[in-house]
Specification:
15 helices, 4-stranded parallel sheet, alpha/beta, elongated, 409 residues, 14 strands
Length: 409
């Protein structure tokens, strides 16, 4: 149950990198004990990053990412290599698979340098030990350690063919896994056992029929784990629900799209916030997005605003990212603005052309990728906020929405 219920954004992402035919896919299959990745003697079998959510014992739920070869050729090959490097932005643990029959190459060294720059925990796997004598294994190992300053604990001979050291590789991956922060909660640290928490959840047309969207599911789970009671209503039911409750709720949490109505229907003595604001705190960027929202007041005619989503979904006729937000921002600023849109794994490498960035809550992005995007904006000196925070600011209720976080004061 734990495996099936763990969202990809909450799983440790393990990126597998290396040249074509170094054995990346074979290593993935050996680690998992399954034929997850296509193995072929033909170079370039993996043409795009392939993500697979699974369980890797003894670590637990992970996402394994198989990447294109670092020595791919031609214009298309350059694009594939770029995709491989972009995977680093979401990688919690990097495994560099090196063809042990040739040793480390310039392509291996280049991505190793980038991995180190990004401070990603890594292992170097010298694969194909079954094709290399023990004496040559020692020579290749010592050469790699000396040339690239690799600690002996970071490098391991393996053979995907005969399973040599695959168990040891799993153990080393587990050691490198980031330690879970037990204090990291969505809302559980803001409430007490037996509290009532009211969640205002419009029926989202973008969500699959019969399901709540991911932030709503995760928030409900966190409330239940805090031994509190989650009461879920639609926006038109809130006022009557609050009147009928036997005791005052400790918190009302709303979807950003109905922020104004929910604020009007929620008495001032009841704390109010949104899913987006809670997830900004959960991802560690609430202060950044609150500051970024204030940049809406600096927009001028002709400025370009980037609206970026971490997931991809079927666009509705009144889609929040591509329709509602641009309309609300134009109405709020009174300016003639340009808007550009990205979704999924696409995030611009160059941000200088934008006056500000409005990002989704990032519920489908893991912590590392969300922080990467924030850092890109910071490095380019571009203010960044998220949907819910921007909406709350434009509707004049941001200050009320962050009152429950006194540290922002």
């Amino acid at each position: 149950m734990s495996l099936n219920n763990t969202p990809s954004s909450e799983r440790i992402h393990i990126g597998i990198f290396g040249k074509r035919n170094a054995g990346k896919s074979s290593i993935i299959n050996a680690l998992t004990g399954q034929s997850l990745a296509i193995v072929s003697d033909v170079k370039g079998t993996t043409t795009d990053p392939v993500l697979k959510a699974m369980e890797l014992l003894p670590l637990g739920p992970v996402v394994m990412i198989d990447t294109p070869g670092l020595d791919d050729e031609g214009e298309l090959g350059k694009l594939r290599i770029q995709k491989a490097y972009q995977v680093l932005n979401k990688t919690d643990i990097a495994i560099l698979v090196v063809d042990g029959t040739t040793g480390m190459t310039k392509e291996d060294a280049a991505i190793l340098e980038r991995i180190r720059q990004k401070e990603i925990p890594y292992l170097i796997v010298l694969n194909k030990a079954d094709l290399v004598s023990e004496a040559d294994q020692c020579t290749v190992l010592e050469s790699a350690q000396a040339a690239y300053g690799i600690n002996s604990r970071r490098i391991l001979w393996t053979s995907a063919e005969d399973q040599m050291n695959i168990y040891e590789l799993k153990e080393q991956i587990t050691v490198l896994a980031p330690q879970e922060d037990s204090k990291l909660r969505i809302v559980g640290d803001l409430i007490h056992p037996s509290d009532f928490v009211v969640l205002v959840v419009p029926i989202d047309k973008a969500a699959p029929k019969g399901r709540l969207i991911l932030p709503q599911q995760q928030t409900i789970r966190d409330i239940l784990e805090a031994d509190a009671t989650a009461i879920v209503v639609k926006e038109h039911e809130l006022r009557e629900t609050l009147q009928n409750l036997s005791k005052k709720p400790s918190l009302v949490i709303t979807d950003s799209q109905v922020f104004a109505k929910v604020s009007a229907d929620t008495p001032g003595e009841i704390p109010l916030t949104s899913f987006s604001i809670l997830f900004a705190r959960y991802k560690g960027n609430l202060r950044t997005v609150v500051h970024g929202a204030r940049a809406l007041d600096t927009l001028e005619d002709g400025d370009t605003v980037l609206i970026s989503e971490g997931c991809t979904h079927h666009r509705q006729c009144d889609d929040i990212g591509t329709v509602k937000l641009p309309r609300w921002i134009r109405n709020y600023t009174g300016k003639q603005l340009n808007f550009e849109f990205t979704s999924g794994t696409e995030f611009p490498l160059e941000l200088d052309c934008y006056k500000m960035i409005v990002h989704c809550g990032g519920c489908t992005l893991n912590e590392r990728e969300m922080k990467y995007r924030l850092k890109c904006a910071e490095d380019a000196n571009i203010p960044i906020t998220n949907y819910g925070t921007a909406i709350a600011y434009m509707q004049g209720i941001l200050e009320r929405s962050i009152e429950i976080f006194p540290s922002l004061g």
